[in-house]
Amino acid sequence: MKTKDRIVETARVRFNEQGYGAVSTSALAAACGMAEGNLWYHFKTRRALLDAIGERFAVAIEARLILRPASDPVGDYAAMVAAMMGEFRDFRFLYRDQHSYGEHAEIVRLNAPDWTLRTFAQLELYLAALVDAGQLEWPRERLHDLAVNATIILRYGLEHDREMGEATGSGHGSVQRTLRRHLTLFEHRMTPAAAQRLHTAIDRIEAAQLAA
Fold first, then answer.
1. What is the architecture of the domain spanning 53-211?
2. Is 69 within 8 Å of 76 (Cβ atoms)?
3. Running DSSP on this structure, what letter comes out for residue 104?
4. From the CB of residue 57, how many other CB atoms can be counted at a distance below 10 Å?
5. What is the pLDDT of residue 52?
6. Confidence check: pLDDT of 126 > 90
């Protein structure tokens, strides 16, 4: 791994574990096994490092946004949720610590509105597939509202937990809680078997990520 990539990866992991505002530049340099001056040789500012992590975040989001439902609406929804869980797990500080770092990374600032609108549309497609398959009873004209509300819970779930004093670091189940919370919007209108499949999928995804 190149030195710059190693710094970005180390920073991402430390920011996720400890919080963006809690990781000093000296501690980050030590974790990278280098002098602080060497770290800033590669990244002149803390914002430049944040932008580099933002670039990786953008790649993950774009990969998730191209997913579409196929032949198994419940399984497809679970796969899309798994991709979201990967975003929350790998970049949790971006969803949780904005009070510490203030402005978003530039690529996030520029693309966040578009990503949000595309997420609304993506969730609506998956929810419509569940309706068409008879797995979800919901008026089609209200699916967009459901997708918006689900996105709000998913987007701000970790930040809400932080504000409420809940543990949000790796291994505390905060991502799993957020995913389960969004299901409460509509699982009561799903067939019991479909709802159970989604809960089981979230449990399996969480277990696989913890074991990784």
1. Orthogonal Bundle (1.10)
2. yes
3. P
4. 23
5. 95
6. yes
* Residues 168-190: tens digit of each pLDDT: 666 677 778 888 999 999 999 99
**In whole angstroms, what is the distance from residue 91 CA to residue 94 CA?**
6
Q: Is 118 in contact with 40 (CB distance < 8 Å)?
A: no
What is the rounded distance in angstroms from the CA atom of residue 171 to the CA atom of residue 169? Answer: 6
Whether the model pTM is above 0.85: yes
Place of tokens 């504000």: 163
Helix (H, G, I), strand (E, B) or coil at 44: coil
Interaxial angle between packed helices 73-90 and 106-132, expressed in degrees from 0 to 180 and rounded to the nearest 10: 160
Angle value at C-alpha 176, between 205 and 187, nearest 5 degrees = 95
User: For residue 120, how many other CB atoms are within 10 A of its CB?
Assistant: 19
Q: Taking the alpha carbons of 59, 62, 64, 70 in that order, is the dihedral positive or negative? A: negative
Which one-letter amino acid corresponds to residue 89? R
- Taking residues 66-75, report their average pLDDT: 95
1-35 pLDDT, tens per residue? 799 999 999 999 999 888 888 899 999 999 999 99
**Amino acid at the residue 91:** F
